[in-house]
Amino acid sequence: MRLGLDIGGTKIDAVALDDDSAVLARVRVATGFGPDAVLRNAQSAALQAAEAAGGSASSLGSVGIGIPGVVDAEAGVVRHAVNLGLEELALGGILAERLGAPVRVENDVNAASLGAYHLLGLAGSMAYLNLGTGVAAGFVNDGAVWRGARGTAGEIGHIPIDPAGIRCACGQVGCLETVAGGGWVAHKWGGDAPLPVLEVFDRADAGDERAVALRAELIGGAAAGVRILILTGDVETVVIGGGISNLGDRLAEPVRASLDELARGSQFLGSLELSSRVRLVPAGEPVAAVGAALSGPRQNTKEPSWRS
């Protein structure tokens, strides 16, 4: 049995997979804050998922974890996961000892990339465009995650696209994240709506001019992200995921329309068939948890893993 844990800011989504990579069971628990709480709840989520699938800790073949922050996959260490209260934590080693199974730790976007690739039944090359609070990407080629020379492949949120734009938290001006990131959309929109991006889209549908302009900016930014990923990596498919992807076709169709408009003005872009290469992450599926399970040590036997 393979387990996958998607450790997010508020919840841990855990799944158990069988030998055919089908989901046997899924459980969710609160994440908590700080190293002690995160470790305790991750262990609990893993054991609950195993039991829900009809097994126990002794039946675990591997555990994969997707988590935000700076992840050293070889060392099993996560650093600077500030939303979880983790400055530096040897997550892989500690959980391997507690669970008695090999554990691999992966960046959450990379895990979601692998999960989307699997759940959509893709082949060849894919880029995963994560539109959440921020913007990032992950790459999968022939079923394997590609991390780059130093593990930072996919940080497209900090590519400047608007010289006249606003200053990003990274210090640059006009980064893609300041246009297409949900956190920045919420900041520009203001108010206290629990789902600010959804409110922007709803208000835009109702004719609110400020919402229409902000929605158009987000759509243009998402289209720019797709264009960047295809022009730099020539991937066969770009899958849009992250929290903003929950808008479904309200997001995907305008993004495709924006890409078609760009293609009409450029014979070169037209030849790339940009809009036809865009997919949405499967709605309601535990994409990151499944990807984490697939990234477990049994799936990467040539790479280091932490064992008890």
UniProtKB/TrEMBL annotation:
InterPro entries: ATPase_NBD, ROK. Coiled coil: none annotated. Belongs to the ROK (NagC/XylR) family. It comes from Gryllotalpicola koreensis. This is ROK family protein. Transmembrane segments: none annotated. SUPFAM superfamilies: Actin-like ATPase domain.
